[in-house]
Each structure stands twice: as C-alpha cells, then as structure tokens.
Amino acid sequence: MPLSKDEMCRYARHLALPEVGAAGQEKLRASRVLCVGAGGLGSPAAMYLAAAGVGTLGLVDFDTVDFSNLQRQLLHGTPDVGRPKTESARDTLRRLNPDVAIRLHPVRLAAANAAEIIGAYDLVVDGADNFPTRYLTNDACVWLKKPYFYGSIFRFEGQASVFAPHLGGPCYRCLFPEPPPPGAAPNCAEGGVLGVLPGVIGCLQATEAMKLILGAGRPLLGRLLVFDALAMQFREIKVRRDPACPVCGTNPSIRKLMDYDPFCHGSSGPPPADAETDEITVQELRRVLADPGAGVRVLDIREPFEARIARLEGVPLLPLSELAARCAELDPRQTYYLLCHAGVRSRHATAFLKARGFRHVKSVRGGIAAWSAEIDPAVPRY
What we know:
The chain has helices spanning 5-10, 12-15, 21-30, 42-52, 85-96, 114-119, 131-144, 172-175, 188-191, 197-214, 282-289, 304-309, 320-326, 344-354, 367-374; strands spanning 32-36, 56-60, 101-105, 123-126, 148-154, 157-163, 223-228, 233-238, 279-280, 296-300, 335-339, 361-364. Helices cover 34% and strands 16% of the residues. Strands 3-2-1-4-5-6-7-8 form an eight-stranded mixed beta sheet, with helices on both faces. A four-stranded parallel beta sheet has the order 9-12-11-10. The chain folds into two domains: 31-238, Rossmann fold, CATH 3.40.50.720; 273-374, 3-Layer(aba) Sandwich (Oxidized Rhodanese, domain 1), CATH 3.40.250. The longest helix has 18 residues, at 197-214. It is built from 15 helices and twelve strands. The termini are far apart.
C-alpha cells in the first residue's frame, strides 16, 4: 500500500534520502521489531524506531517504573512511577507516533516463552540489563535466524554490535561463550551509569536496526563498537565467528533454550535454592540490630559514595573493594551479616570469607534496597 498523505509529510526527511525514499519507508512500515527491555537502552531505541515509522514494535519487560529509572529511561516520567514499564512505554510511543502498532509482553523472557515471543518479529534489539536474559535472547535469535542488535552499558562505557550467524557474522557467544560467575560482573544498580550513556548506545542500536531493514550501509556485523564517554572516543574490535561456539558453531553443544539464572545469579532473579542457607532476610536483620546481645556483627560492604546516599545507623562500613586487604581485621569465629545494595556483592563476599575459614557468615537478601522497601521507606533508594 502506498504511503498516505500524512505519512508522506511525517517522513518527509526520510523520503528525501536516496537510501530510504518511499520504498525504504514502506520497508520500515512493514517491519516488526522486538525491544527486549523498556529501560535505559530500550528507551532511545524504541523511541527512534517508533518515530522512524517501524510498523510493529514489541516491548518485553516485567518491571515497574522506579524513581531511580528516571535519570536515563526517557520512556517514563515522574507520574509513571509504580506503573508497569510496558504500559508507560506504550503511552509515550503512542504520543510520538500513533501509527505504530505497539505490542506488549509484560513478562520475564524465559526459556518457556522466548521462541514464541521472538519468533513473531523480524529482528531483536537487546535492551536487557542482565546476563540471563541476554544469553537466552542470543540463543533464541540464533535458532530462529533473527538479527540480534546488542548493546550494553556500565558506568561511562558502552558497547554495540550486530550478531547474526545466518548472515555470516558471529553470535554473542562467539565473543562471550559462557555467562560470568556469580558476583563477577556488577550491574548498573551496583556500579552506576552515566544517564546519557544508554542514549548514545540505544541510538546506535536503532540506527543499525534501521540500516538492516533498509538494506543500506555497512552493518556492525563482525564488529564490536566500544564507546568511552569520558574520553569521548570510539574504538572498534573485530569479532569473528567461532567454529567452536556452543550455539552457532560447527558442532553446537547447546541445543535447546534454557534459563540462565542459576548460572549467573546476581544479575537477575531469585537466588538458587542452595544459596538460602547463606542468606538472611531484612526482617532477621532488623531483629539482630534491635538486640545488641544477639552476638552478630553487621557489616555494610558498599562503597563510601553509596553510604553517603543511604545508610543504616550503627552499621560499620567495610567496602568490598577493601575486603581482601582488611580480612585480617575480622574474627573467623564471629557471626557476620553482610549488607550491600541489592544482595549481589554480599553473596560474593560471603563466599569469599567462607573460602577463608569464616563459618558463620550470611548475606542480607535484597540488601539495603529491600530494607527500604520492606522495613523503613525513609531510607533512600538509589
């Protein structure tokens, strides 16, 4: 169907480009793009894809809008706090371009639903903030032959690439074959992120998606683009397809979709069952703090800048970054409860101390964020 008069006006600047024109705009209108995540990366990617006239835009996200999201997740505003992200994003995108069909998937992407959800789209933009979702998305895209537009952010650095073995390029596992061990890679909540950084990387992802739809230019296939915001510098790393890749290699060892929370716990999701004996709840922490005779020392292992934002009175600070050097200050016979931001680093520190002979160490599940949510909302969340 030819472009309408309104479409000709809306996309006039596209139509003026020989690489797009009316035929290219019709390709965009016929395309179906899935954004996995409606957060930092998903916000700019979805907004620019909707503005560009992508016909169908799918959004996968099970989270709700939090105040801490607003520093970078431009799909959402202050009145949206507490709303499902998919609903907030839908309203923003409809205001931007009501002609785009918005499909919502307010669920956690999992092995049980990934093939069905991803299979309904032509390509996938990765806005995930955790490793389990990223590995699952990659694997599903490989088997369904869907181009996968990768993006990641941390502090002041971002990365972007295009993974598509069916187009001759590598997959995400060719670069990172296995998920990282628990606690090895902190997320943005733990390490922080410059608010504009996902805007840069998300726009790169949207650009690459549009180029592939249009068949224009040279895609980031086989190239990893790394952006350093502090140095304002881009550098490129070549990524080749790995014949030994466990998913897209000559003899793949992974042949079905699986959930990766047990393998890289700490990025997302509930703790594995065998971790429960090494954890206590914030309710138990409250009981201990109220009872000086309980014989338990509580240690805050966050960094000093975090303690300046939110802190529990009377709980001493021993940053995880100093734990190895100051381990001798601790008594292996003492019972310790370790507190961090969200329970990730405290589990890592618990395992570290237990490996060095500390038998009575437990992590506070959910960290100070859980304390704020369940015990004392006056403690700031960040």
